[in-house]
Specification:
With about 80 residues, the chain is an all-alpha fold. It has one domain. Helix content is about 75%, strand content about 0%. Helix 2 runs antiparallel to helix 4. The longest helix has 20 residues. The protein is globular, with a radius of gyration of 15 Å. It starts with 7 loop residues before the first helix and ends in a 7-residue tail after the last helix.
Length: about 80
């Protein structure tokens, strides 16, 4: 886990992005769709994705974590 903190500029830009440009739920849905597509491609043995499997696993995890922050789905009780 990273202990880096966002710069104030990055924090301001992210807040503005989610307040003014896009719905957090829509981004969460898009992230889940991308993760599904990536996972499906790897499981389907798509050659291009197979060579990137280690990196995709890490990306899959972090994209899912971001989706859960924006719109909790898997952690709903």
């Amino acid at each position: 886990m990273s202990t880096n903190t966002l710069s104030k500029e990055a924090e301001t830009k992210l807040i503005a992005f989610f307040n003014d440009r896009v719905d957090p739920n829509a981004i969460a849905k898009a992230l889940r769709q991308v993760n599904f597509t990536l996972a499906f491609g790897v499981m389907s043995k798509v050659e291009l994705l197979q060579s990137e499997t280690p990196q995709l696993g890490n990306s899959f995890y972090w994209l899912n974590e971001l989706a859960e922050i924006l719109d909790p789905y898997l952690e709903v009780e």
